[in-house]
Every structure is written in C-alpha cells, then in structure tokens.
Amino acid sequence: MKKILRLTAASLLALVIALPAVAADMSASIARVKPAIVVVGTYQKLASPQFAMRGTGFVVADGNLAATNAHVVVGDSGPDAPVLVVRTHDANGQPQLRPARVVSRDPEHDLAVLRFEGAPLPTVELSDSDAAHEGQMVGFTGFPIGGALGFSPVTHHGMIASITPIALPGNVARQLNEKAIRQIRRGVFDIFQLDATAYPGNSGSPVFDAASGQVIGIINMVLIKGSKESALSQPSGISYAIPVNFLKQLLDARSN
To answer: Does residue 220 register a pLDDT over 70?
Structure first.
C-alpha cells in the first residue's frame, strides 16, 4: 500500500512540475493564433444593428483567405441581401469591416473558404490532422456567445477525448436533423470529439495543438442536452471539430 501511495505521489509531483511548461506553451500558442482570428458576419446599411455576427474564421494561405464553417456563410442572396464581411482591426487597433466572398465550399465537411479585401493579415500554420491523437491537449480561439462578450477573441482549452465517426450514437438520434441525416448517408468520416465547451459563435474556430500552435481542426458543432438554449445554461462540455486535412484539401483544390 505504501508503495502505491509513493507512486501516486510521484505521479502527482511530475504533473505539478509539468503544468507550468504546459501553461507556457499554451500562452505562446495563443499569441501565435490570436492575430489570425476574424469575425465572420454580414453588413446591411439599413439594418439595426448594421453588422450581424455569424461565426468565427481564421486566416490562412496568402493572408487574404479565411476559413470557417459552411453553415456560417449560408444566408440570403439577391440585390438586397446583407453583404458578407469579416471584422478585424486596422493598424491603429480600430475595428473595420472588409467585404468578403465565398471562393470554396465543402458542405459535406462543413467547410468554407472566403476571400476578403484589404491588406493581408497574419496567418495560422496548418498541421497534419492524421497525426492528431486522443489525449492531445488543444485550445480553440473564437467568439463564444456571439458579440455578447464583445469582439475580443477568447480561448478555451481541453483535449481530444475521442477520434470518432461523424455518425451520432443512436441514443441521441432524436437530435438528428435533415442535414445530419444527409451527411451520414453520404459516408462516415472521423471527427475530433473534444473534452471542452464551445458555445454559439465558436463555429469556425481553429482548434490548435497546445504546444505548437498548429491548427489541427475546426469547431463545427456542440452536443446539446436538450433545447438550443441549454447550450448556454447547461453546456454538455462536449464539442466536435472537423480535421484540418479536409480544409487543406479544399485549399489545394483551389490552386490546381
């Protein structure tokens, strides 16, 4: 019994010693990722408010492309429809809206790529998501609860709890909608289940490795216990992310 206690104490000591290093890595990773985060939304001059947030995006490739979820950019079309924009900051730190347009879309994996106007912004580094593993510590940065908390990027952290097929378990089948059913019928692919809480507004947030800051996935849905409102009042603590290799394929298809 004493031997077991000594081993347990040693394990706890090792964990305590490792925690500052993990925290330092996460701080450095946040600093690398945060400048590339943008708000994805719409602008309509006669609306009140004029700007409406739709989700989170992050800048990739040449600095004028932003990745997000396909469901974030689905909306009205026509001459009177709101204009798709990304919200960022100018050199003086003042908020600015930049017109954007969808240049690539992958509905099956809930991904979209936007091209926005203006000077290039800092970009993130995309990792090989096939190398991701269960137990890997990650963070994700975005705008939880929409603009209710303001438009300063917020980071949450957790780990990859499971790498699992997109099909939801049968005991939550009542939560499946037509979109989910169509997706399952098109084929099952692996997705990251995170032991972390995402909120409305986090859709499109980059999921990055805590140590390197490299992006391994994109937040796209949260497990909801009951109604949509319960995502705020009673969060499940379970979120899902699309592996970033699907985004890399989408970007490669544009250049070919």
So the answer is: yes
